[in-house]
Amino acid sequence: MKIRTIALNTFGSFLRNKVILLFCSVFACIVLLTLTPLLAFKGMTTAANAQQMEGMVLNEIAAVMSMVSGFGSLLAAWAAADSVAGEMKSGTILAVMARPLRRWEFLAGKYLGVMMLMVVYVVVMFAVTMLLAWLGGQQFHNSLWTLLVYPMVRYAMWAAIAMFLVTLVHPVVAMGMVVILATLVLIFGSPWRHIPNWIRLPVHLILPLTNLVSEERFLSVTRASLKPFPWASHLTILAYGVDYALVWFLLAAYVFQRRGLTRD
Amino acid sequence: MATPTASIPAIEFSGVTKVYQRGFAAPSVPALSGISFQVARGEVCAFLGPNGAGKTTSMSILMGFIYADQGQARVFGYAPGDVRAKGRIGFLPENFAFYKYLTAEKLLQFHLRLSGRQVTDPAALINELLIKVKLDGYVGLKIGKYSRGMVQRLGIAQALLGNPDLLVLDEPTSGLDPAGRKEVRDLILAMKAEGKTIFLSSHLLSEVEKICDRVIIIDRGNMVRAGGLQDMLAESNRVEIVVDQLPEAVEQALKEQGATIEREANRVRISVDVAQKRSVAEALWAGGSDVISLTPMKSSLEEMFLKLVGGAE
Q1: Mean pLDDT of chain B
Q2: CB burial of residue B304 (10 Å; 0-12, 13-18, 19+)
Q3: Residues of chain A found within 8 Å of residue B89, distances taken between Cβ atoms
């Protein structure tokens, strides 16, 4: 009940948050900007160049959705960091924590609030994917749930990492560290052969391997298909993501329990 | 754990020490040095000290926001921060902060849900509290549009929301006009009449003098004084002797002994050092004056405070 109260209040505050509104505006602009060339390509399609035009359309959709999905990771991390740091900075946390509320309950409420925001983001992202694919003349037929569940798990991981970092350091520093982590994920997650195994393996144990929990692994927008994947693999990968998020959330709760709650 | 009995004080600090470490290179700042005191149930206790004395640090430890480096604090026998203790506390932080996008009703609903208090009609309770703090005429107005005084009243309403046994108020009259201060004072007295324990910090010593039973004074993290307010104020080293008339010759002699004399229409007030009271009284009788009263003089809380903290504020 108390966790839900904190979560709903956090979600409500996001809906009035200027940075979130900016994110949404950027998101909407990207979609609108995408539509222009997309519709132009569609308009230029003739019987002679149909295959070539369709390929261009689908390539564009794939690029845009990849960017929007990446934005989501940043949004999740920022929202998690801001939800805790904002309360500390404004001092609203004092009246809240004076209530019979445990610190981990407060943090769990904040985390759930972030995840509620990300559910909205993922649903909108899913709808936009479907819309763009339809405009590109394609339709997905199976495993659509992966387009909802995988991004959610990935965002849960980034939110937990950011929440942990913001219990230790200033939110700006926390976001900087998130960006560095995301860059490292890109570097170490790539199939570059020249990174020696003695570096790659230990780093893999620490880094959030969000590329594993990426719907792009089996989503081929250019063929509008979702590669078939065994359920056991789905479960293993999703369990990895959830476990990773849980570990970082528990670390955040541990640090938050020990730190002083004062106006920053 | 067994439920604490009624004999356990509402608040207990035993040798509480807190040192702030500001970064790696900066020197540490001692905020509290072995503070010990108790606040009994049903008492109205003022926690006084100049700025930087350690009042807010003490209150933060009491609420479980920060931890003591040494010593122990207890609230109703529980560790600070324990939900069983927090469930019995109504807290008003200094410069109460709020969610600006909410209305007073929404904010109180939010805090009521967090308080865990079960009420049959939450809207009626919230309305009653808003009437109590005179905010009932602002339905639908976002808190961000409130004046400083209105925010403070709302803070008091949220502190009362959980029907607490202990009210911890950090500067409750901050930002309020004289009428508002009187309303808060009346509210505190009403809570006292209900048997609530009230622990408050304030810089308005005249207000404190009107409502408190006990006073704890700290300065630079050290306990300066603690005790009953009336006992403290009575600890003056002067007495006042009121006589019906005072001959000129006696007046001159008394002035030479350091007495201060104030003539009124049909009586004369003479203030002398307590060590001289017998000799002065005898001189007055011998001089033909009739002594109407002889009473120890009380100092004001402000005078006493300034004396104890060296006029730091």
Answers
A1: 86
A2: buried
A3: 98
Fold of B11-233: Rossmann fold (3.40.50)
Which residues from B are below 8 Å from A when comparing CB atoms?
60, 63-67, 81, 83-84, 86-87, 89, 91, 93, 95-99, 101, 110-111, 113-116, 155, 158, 162, 168
Choose among B63, B84, B116: nearest Cβ to A98: B63
Which residue in A11, A20, A93, A99 has the most chain B C-beta atoms within 10 A of its own C-beta, making it the best mutation to test that interface?
A: A99
List the domain boundaries for chain A. Answer: 2-258
Confidence of residue A116 (pLDDT cuts 50, 70, 90): very high
ipTM, two decimals: 0.81
Closest chain A residue to the Cα of B68, Cα to Cα: A260
B237-297 classified as CATH 3.30.70.980: yes
Contacts with B153 (C-beta within 8 Å, 6 or more apart), sequence order? B133, B134, B135, B176, B180
Q: What is the residue extent of each domain of chain B?
A: 11-233, 237-297
Q: Mind listing the pLDDT tens digit for each residue in B205-263?
A: 888 888 888 999 998 888 888 888 777 777 667 788 899 888 888 888 888 888 888 88
Tell me how close the Cα of B28 comes to any Cα of chain A, in angstroms. Answer: 16
Count how many pairs of residues, chain A against chain B, have C-beta atoms within 8 Å: 76
Name which of B97, B116, B168 is nearest A100 (Cβ-Cβ).
B116
| Closest Cα in chain A, distance from residue B93 (Å) | 7
Residue A100 to chain B, least CA–CA distance (Å): 4
pLDDT in tens, B120-171: 899 999 999 999 888 888 888 898 888 888 888 899 899 999 889 999 999 8
Q: Transcribe chain A into DSSP letters.
A: -HHHHHHHHHHHHHHT-HHHHHHHHHHHHHHHHHHHHHHHHHHH--TTTHHHHHHHHHHHHHHHHHHHHHHHHHHHHHHHHHHHHHHHHHSHHHHHHTSS--HHHHHHHHHHHHHHHHHHHHHHHHHHHHHHHHHTT----S-TTHHHHHHHHHHHHHHHHHHHHHHHS-HHHHHHHHHHHHHHHHHHHS--TTS-HHHHHHHHHHS--TTTT-GGGTEEGGGTEE----HHHHHHHHHHHHHHHHHHHHHHHHHHHHS-----
Q: What is the pTM assigned to this prediction?
A: 0.82
In this prediction, residues A51-79 reach a mean pLDDT of: 78
